[in-house]
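Input record (one chain):
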Amino acid sequence: MKRIYIYKRFERFWHWSQAALIIFLDITGFEVHGTFDIFGFEQAARFHRVASWMLIVLVIFAIFWHFATGEWKQYLPTTKKLKEQILYYSFGMFKGEPHPTKKTELSKMNPLQRLVYLGFKLFLIPVTIISGILYMFHKTIDANDVVVVEDIPLEGIAFWHTLGAFLLMIFLVVHVYMTTTGHTPASNIKAMLTGYEDVEDENEEQKSEKVEENETKL
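The corresponding structure, as predicted from the sequence alone:
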């Protein structure tokens, strides 16, 4: 095993801040819907509005950072070893099989992660944010006779925003579970805290493969 620096400082800040804001938005949002009572309706609505603007600002900075650093290339989809990755998550990891892809600084995500995170960034986050903004300013937009929103009922906007909230919760639960599939249950979380991750050394891997071949011959 060798330790390499994979996750940069802003990347870690953006990751944890985004997760915290999404969780807080889910809590306050569902309280506004009357699911439970923690802060009180008015306070929850106020917190939800402030946190939503914080998330929008964070997303804008993250988009700028991704394009300025070239990190957007990490999300380019590929079908190379996609089938192997799906089979690994479905069966292989439960049998102790080796991971089909290797994590590097230039390739942090496997093919399946690229597709999931690309959908998260291009569909899930935009739908949730846009529907939230439309819901927040629906009266103002309707009063100004904006044609784009004029025929969209408030219930429809609320549906998409609530759907986005549920999908974000599902994404977070699955994401947390998948972090436990590293070398140890806490290794991926530790890497996102420190920036450093332990990956398999190719030389050591080749040596172990040669040993296995020799043992097979014997």
